[in-house]
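Memo to structure team: turn this sequence into structure tokens by end of day. - J.P.
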Amino acid sequence: MIHIEVQSQEDIEFSERMYIYHYRSFDLHKKVISLAILGDDRPSWRPQTYRYELGGCSVCFEFPTAKLLDYEPQWDALERESNPFALLVMAHLKTKATNNKAQERETWKWHLVQLLYERGYTEKDIIKFFRLLDWMMTLPQALQDSFDTKLRNYQEERKMPILSNIELRAIERGREEGRQEGRQEGRQEGRQEGRQEGLQEGILESILDVLTARFERVPTELVDRIHQIADVTQLKQLHRQAISIESLTAFEQLLDNN
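Reply from structure team:
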């Protein structure tokens, strides 16, 4: 049994939590490896041990860690590496490095997407990795529109399929191209309605994915509240805020304000 824990913020209780998860896994599987992947931005934070002693009884639990910041000096090696996790590490590092630097983030996002095509992944893998990159490296709408156009042209030149999430964003914008393909107005309205519902559900899932990735456990009450929101514009705003908000409590306050 291999237990992998991804932690993106410093947490003074993290080592204890690793120990708790380990012994609960041990109850079921007996032999367990617990590994921590640290995606935070503090080079000095490196939890590796949990210990306590009481009444002559002592416990010392040590676990290996992978600090993603340590890969920054190895950027050239990451670019040459075919292991798909190398690409995700690069996306993580550049996402952290380009906070409040939208133009620079767009440049790096485009570079990483091109690497996707150069590494010979299958169409299915490219779509999966692109969704992760797109989720991590969010852009302002104007830059995203430009990025989408560039990506469509890139794919058309190489006779590659348009990625499904690009299609969704095109539907979201209601672009004219889709309405000029000779479709009947009544059928178009019916499709648009279904697509709108799919878009709404996709954003809801993205919000919950972000909150779960950042804070690990999202209370059922909060999940229910998010699912009650039907306005797509509000959901998009909440998705952007979920990426950078400091706590679940602050996110709940956003819902209260809305």
